[in-house]
Amino acid sequence: MLGEFEYLLITAAARLGENAYGAAIREEIAATTGRKCSIGALYTTIDRLETKGLLKTWMGDATPQRGGRAKRMVQVTAKGVQAAKGFYDAVARVSRGASWVTERARSIS
Amino acid sequence: MTSGGWPLVEVAARLLEGDERNAVLGDLQEASETAWHGLFGVLGLVFRRHAQLWKSWRPWLAGFGVAFPSSLLLMGASLTVSWSYQRLLCPELLAKASLTPRSGFLLLLCQALVLTGWSWTGGFVVGRVSRRTLWASTVLCYAPCLFCLTRYRVDSLSRYCLLLFILPAIWGVRRGLRISTIRLSGAVVVALGVTVLMIPAWSGGHPHWWTIDWALSLPAWYLVATSWKSARAGAPA
User: How many domains does chain B have?
Assistant: First the structure.
């Protein structure tokens, strides 16, 4: 099963789609969770997920705003989607009946 | 990122591999990170990369299994070769050891060849097994050398006689870094040569020396095992 940060990274990359690369994923994680992730945590986790076959990476184009440096593009594989879905389902199952979940459900209805 | 801190971050990023360096520096520039954040980020990644290497058995074998113990033992072997050379130059010492100049020379030749073989194979294994942690193996090899050099108290021999093994070891490391494996026939010749030559070279010594001799011969037999494995797998040897 995925770890929490692995799930966040895969989900952020999936949301970004074709624009998923290091800086964009960091920004997406920071914007959605309010937590900044370090470059070290990001790239070592990307490597680990790629080794597991959950992500695919390649070197993309260079842009002037990056000082002419290439991006490391990221794509979630079908296996990665399955793993993220499994993590999400597990969290949803284990959270069923928890007070903060029922309160939230009540507030929505 | 401030322009003043940028060169420092770029220097730190040199510790990363080419593509990763490009991606990381580009990300930092795009995110407009401060120089300090950038520097800590890069150093954090470098640290994580190196820490990951130590999760494998390879750097442990290269550093603590070969480099450190071999340097201690090979300093002893280097001294023995130096003493044999000194004895060859002094007829009285030769006579005392019941050796003729010819047998003394042959003994020295055997010892020098075995020392070269042990050092070369040890160096080759260190270079081959863990290229990216070579710095750690180097420190673990030189630390005992430095310790022994500072405590060396033999008047008749120069302290640098301890380091006779260094050059063949460096040669072995360089070969190990360049080629992944040697031909099976070559590995067998080296291992057999070292094993056969160590019999006359260190015969007559303390029985415990045999254990040390065999320990120093292990890298040569490790090379045979890996070459045999590659030959069986059909990989180019």
Answer: 2
| Contact with chain A for residue B41, Cβ under 8 A | yes
Q: Which of B20, B22, B30 sits opposite A23 (nearest CB)?
A: B30
pTM to 2 decimals?
Answer: 0.77
The H helix count followed by the E strand count for chain B is 11, 0
Q: What is the CATH number of the domain that holds A86?
A: 1.10.10.10
Domain of A17 in residue numbering reads as 4-108
Q: What are phi and psi of A57, to 5 degrees?
A: -130, 155
Any residues with CB less than 8 A from the CB of B42 and at least 6 apart, and which? Answer: A39, B9, B12, B13, B15, B16, B24, B28
| B180 pLDDT above the threshold of 90 | no
- For residue B170, is it within any domain? yes
Cβ distance A22 to B47 less than 8 Å, yes or no, reads: no
**Cβ neighbours of residue B37 closer than 8 Å, sequence gap 6 or more:** B28
Q: Tell me if B29 and A66 make a contact (CB, 8 A cut-off).
A: yes
Q: How far is the CA of B8 from the CAs of B20, B35, B46, in angstroms?
A: 17, 8, 14
B115 within some domain = yes
Enumerate the residues of chain A whose CB falls inside 8 A of the CB of residue B29: 65-67, 69
**Same domain (yes/no): B215, B137:** yes
If asked whether residues B46 and B132 sit together in one domain, one would say: no
Distance, C-alpha B60 to centroid of its chain: 13
Last residue of a domain, one of B53, B72, B91: B53
Confidence of residue B237 (pLDDT cuts 50, 70, 90): very low
Q: What distance lies between CA B24 and its chain's CA centroid?
A: 33
With the CA atoms of B103, B105, B110 and B112 taken in that order, what torsion angle do they form, in degrees rounded to the nearest 10?
160
Q: For chain A, what is the domain count? A: 1
Q: CA–CA separation, B216 vs B209, rounded Å?
A: 10
Q: How confident is the model at residue B153 (pLDDT cuts 50, 70, 90)?
A: confident
